[in-house]
TrEMBL record:
This is Gamma-soluble NSF attachment protein. It comes from the Eukaryota. It is found in: Membrane. It comes from Oesophagostomum dentatum (Nodular worm). Residues 212-222 have a biased composition (Acidic residues). Keywords: Coiled coil, ER-Golgi transport, Membrane, Protein transport, Transport.
């Protein structure tokens, strides 16, 4: 029955009706979970979200959130991280910065727990950027301090330096200087969704502009 639902959902997607495909995928996922097949349910989440994400990003977020709850029950930490990353990316795409910040914090907690300070550093930059996109440097500074409390070794990394420069540059109110900070190699190595976000950032009361660039290929963003 679940396979049939998935097949019907795929046909609806192919017909351009991803909205109608969503409840069929959701029902299949729920039934896999209810029967104890959590791994199959999680894999179906991943497949279904990728199928509908272009036309129905908000529904894809709901699927990833459902999947996250499932894999946390079955202690699949790698898949949990992947689902959190997808939730963050889609919320950034929709400019839902509060939701993106929450997902990033959840990711940071996960990587602190498994002692991966490198990933913690990258995610802290991401969190600071999202808070600045909201225009809230105070929240950005609090997030930075929160990470220091979770992961003491973070303070002496290039990622931490980049965070301090971002916050200081923003609060300095000199957009030209802030745009120069955004050219830092540590920041330019961030994933594409954050490179796109950086193109939108301007220090308050500044008059500088970023270089023109669309949301094109990775080479253009780098």
């Amino acid at each position: 029955m679940n396979v049939a639902r998935e097949g019907a959902a795929m046909l609806l997607r192919d017909a351009g009706d991803s909205a109608a495909a969503y409840p069929l995928f959701e029902k299949a996922i729920d039934q896999y979970a209810e029967s104890g097949s959590l791994d199959t349910a999680a894999m179906t989440v991943d497949k279904a979200a990728k199928v509908i994400v272009q036309q129905e990003p908000e529904q894809a977020i709901k699927l990833y959130e459902k999947g996250l709850a499932l894999v946390q029950q079955s202690d699949r930490s790698k898949m949990a991280g992947e689902f959190l990353s997808q939730i963050t990316r889609l919320n950034l795409r929709l400019e839902r910065y509060n939701e993106a910040a929450k997902a990033i914090r959840d990711e940071i907690e996960k990587y602190v727990e498994v002692k991966e300070p490198g990933r913690v550093g990258q995610l802290t930059i991401a969190l600071v950027l999202v808070q600045l996109a909201k225009g809230d440097s105070v929240a950005a500074a609090k997030c930075y301090q929160w990470v220091l409390e979770q992961c003491a070794e973070f303070e002496f990394t290039d990622d931490a330096r980049a965070c301090r420069q971002l916050i200081g540059g923003w609060e300095g109110g000199d957009d030209e200087q802030f745009q120069n900070i955004l050219k830092d190699g540590v920041l330019r190595s961030m994933d594409n969704e954050y490179l796109r976000l950086m193109k939108k950032l301007h220090a308050p009361q500044g008059s500088g502009t970023t270089e023109e660039g669309g949301e094109g290929e990775e080479e253009d963003l780098k």
